[in-house]
Amino acid sequence: MTDNDPRFHGDARSRSLFTLVSELPQQLIALLKAEIAHLKAEFAEKAKHAGVGIGLFVVAAVLGFFALGSLVAAAILGIAVALPGWLAALIVVVALLLIAAILALIGISSFKKMNGVAPEKTINSIKEDSEALKGLGRYDN
């Protein structure tokens, strides 16, 4: 961005210190705008790739759901060879409910281990940065 701007070229020694200092806010604003534009472009590209990935994941999940239904039907039909059909279906349903209950208990246990949803490490890092800017605390990292 600053490569094409004539304000940022030329011999800095030929300009006064006052001129250089007065141009500093403009240069910082230009740099900030360039960084924001770069951030937007990068985010747009990543969002595009994420959208494609999410779409493919949804299609895979739908196909997996149909495959699971077919697997359940095959299990029922396989058990129905030796037992009545209603009993085969009941056995498969009970087995699926047991698996679902176990997975739900594991999921609940996982949520209980979580200490909230706030990004505590990031918040602490920002607090440390603000203290360092104020000249307080440690800033040896």
TrEMBL record:
Protein name in UniProt: Membrane protein
Stretches that traverse the bilayer: 54-80, 86-106
Organism name: Leifsonia poae
Keywords: Membrane, Transmembrane, Transmembrane helix
Lineage: Bacteria, Bacillati, Actinomycetota, Actinomycetes, Micrococcales
Family matches, as InterPro entries: Phage_holin_3_6 (IPR009937)
